[in-house]
Structures are given as structure tokens and as C-alpha cells.
Amino acid sequence: MQMGIGEFFLQILFCIGYASILFELGIQLTHLLNKWYPWERSIGKRIAIQLGIHSVITLLLILFFFEVYLSIYFHDDTLFRQVIIIGMILCLLINAVFTAEYFFYKWNDASVKSLELERLSNQAQLDVLKLQLDPHFLFNNLSAAISFIEDEPKIAINFMKKLVSIYRYMLSNKTQHIISLRDELDFIKGYLFLYQTRYGDSIKVEIGELAFAHKYGVPPLTLQLLIENAIKHNMFSLDQPLTIQIYFTNEELLSVKNNKSPRLHKENGLQMGLKNIEQRYLLLNKKVPATIDDIDFFTVEIPLIKLSDQE
Fold first, then answer.
1. Partners of 205 in the β-ladder
2. Residue 144: inside a domain, yes or no?
3. 222, 106: one domain
4. CATH code at 276?
5. Do both 76 and 195 map to the same domain?
6. Rounded alpha-carbon distances, angstroms, from residue 177 to 3, 32, 174, 220
7. How far apart are CA 179 and CA 177, in angstroms?
8. Does the residue 272 lie in any domain?
9. Residues 297 and 200 in one domain
10. Among the three residues 111, 128, 145, which one is the final residue of a domain in this structure?
């Protein structure tokens, strides 16, 4: 049977309307699922759920349009099967578009976050280098090393080795966003050795049993910034030592705690260091560290990052 011009245009309008409705339903379904079952929960399940629901809607629309329009003009099972095939192809294409849009958004977002994270990591490196290259820091440490050379040459050599290892650690990890907690703790022990050699029992460090240190990581220099702030913003002496405690609050939370004896002249470095750490955690899509500031103690609780999740 030859199709008339009117019927031809009617079918064109039907196809356009049908595709438009499918596309609009796809948009609404995507918005709904973004709230009910976001992509972050499971990409595979999200694709399956979205495609399944959209396929059912597509079949229902085909049945509706076929009953309302197509069955009036045509009584052809072949046409019905063709409409179903075309509808499912449209469904797949529409979902492919939305899935591609999501992955493009995540890729673009990850690129922006990576650049910002690199900037903050570099800033943290720069802040630490400023502290370490500060004339007072170098002068005090070199003076301490020189004072040990004559009476305690072994201590002097070990002191200089630790000083060199600090700079080596910072340079070798300057491009890393996450570093093993075990490596960070090894670095911190060397860093604290400098202060404890100079100040003796005025600075005490208690590191608890950290059996899970090899499984977790932190942004580089996180512990160093916190310890530097504790030393920088508190007074300490043999009679009133500064005690810094590092321990697991639970398997995925590390606490850095120090007793408080604030200096009379307060500086802004504490907030800057904490802000840098917080921003790096945010860019890693991780929970930010929490601070507990009471009368006698200042504590920072650092969320640990599973190294297996980063592989």
C-alpha cells in the first residue's frame, strides 16, 4: 500500500515527538536518580538501573503510541517490531549521551581538582621550606651541630644527617598528593630529633602503637605542619615541657595532641597550616581534619586515607 504525503508527514511528526519525549524523560530520570542513586555509589549499578527504567518507559510509550496512533492507520506486526527496535536504539543512544556527559564532567572536575591540589601541595612545600630556610632555623641548627662537634662528634654527624634527610624527603615527595603514613612518621622522627637534640627533655614526643601505618596515607607534610605549629605557638621548658602525642583514635583516624602553654605573642601560622591541610583533604574528596581546642590541650584528628583505594 502506497503511503500518502499526509501519512508520511504524520509519521515524521510522530518520530520527532516520540524522540523528544524520550529525551525529556531521560533528562528527568537522570535528575531523579542523581538524588536517589548518585553515580558515586556504583557506576555499574547506576547504568543498569537507569537503562532498565528507561527501557521500561520506552516500551510503555511504544505501546501507548501504537494503540493511539499507529493501530488506527496500520495493522502490521512487522511495523510494531520495527518501532520497538527503533525505540530501544533511541533509549540506548540517549543513555549513552547522559553517561558520556557524566564522565566528561568527572574528568574535567578531576583535572581542575588535580591542578588545585598540586598548587596547594606546592604551597605546603613552600611554607615548610620557608620555615626550614629561615635564617634562625638554619643558624640555630648549624650552631647546635657545631657545638656538638668537639664534645659529641657522633651526635653532630647524626644531627647533620637528619637535617639533610629533611630536605631530601621534601624534595623527593614534592609531586606526591598522598604519602604512606609510615614514611611520614619516619620523616617526623628525624625532624623531631633536631628539636629534641637542641632542647632535650623540654620537648617530649609520645608515638603510640601504629600497627596500621603501612595501610594508610596522608597528604605530605601534614604531621610536620602540625608539629611545627605546636612548637611555634607554645612555650616550653624543662619544668613545663611540651608534650606531643601521636596515636590512632581508631583504625582510620590519627590524632596529634599537645598540651597548651601559649606564647604571649600569637602568630597566624597555625590557621594557615590547618587551612592548607583542610583544603588538600577537600580536593582529595576526603573528610577534613577536626580540631579540639580545650583549656589544656589542642588536638587535631586526621582522617587516614586507605592506600589500597588510591591504586
1. 244
2. no
3. no
4. 3.30.565.10
5. no
6. 66, 34, 8, 7
7. 7
8. yes
9. yes
10. 111
Show the cell assigned to 200: 632535650
Question: Domain limits at 212?
Answer: 173-310
This prediction's pTM:
0.57
Within a domain: 27: yes
Instruction: State which of 111, 126, 148 marks the end of a domain.
Output: 111
Examine the domain organization and report whether 72 and 186 are in the same domain.
Answer: no
CA dihedral 263, 266, 268, 270 (to 10 degrees): 20
Q: pLDDT tens digits, the chain, 311 residues: what are they?
A: 444 565 556 666 666 666 777 777 777 777 787 788 776 677 778 778 877 887 787 777 777 766 665 555 555 566 566 666 766 677 677 767 777 777 777 666 766 677 776 766 666 655 554 454 455 566 777 777 787 787 788 888 888 888 888 878 877 776 777 889 999 998 888 888 888 888 889 999 998 887 778 889 998 888 988 988 888 889 999 999 999 999 988 878 999 999 998 887 665 555 667 887 887 787 777 888 999 999 999 999 999 998 876 65
Provide the number of structural domains found in the chain. Answer: 2
Q: What would you measure as the largest C-alpha separation in the chain, in angstroms?
A: 111
Does residue 213 share a domain with residue 96? no
Residue 265 lies in a domain: yes
